[in-house]
What does this fold into?
Amino acid sequence: MKLEYTKYGDYYLLNITIPEESKETKGKHFGKYGLLRLNFLKEHKQVLYQELLLNNKLHEHLVIIDEESNTKVNNLIKQFAEQENINEELKANNQLEWVQKMNNIKNRAEGAPRAYIQIA
It folds into this structure.
């Protein structure tokens, strides 16, 4: 491995470049589950956190975790709603009951990915 330096005045400084982000995650942002994963890595998996950070893979990892978790939550919400027969007819006839049931389902579904975030 050859290191290259550039002379600035009386000093030689190491030429350092930051690698490009992957095309899949470039410009993407992570949300709730990405932040939860970031906090988990910092608190409980410091070695993995440092490795991802030093290899410039942390952002990509967090975006992927966030997308997977959101997909899982949305799928769970649909499944629970189908199982409990919560549909557009209920929404049209009794909006308050529909909102209550959907909020209940959303709260249950959002609790599930936390286990995934900690395992991965």
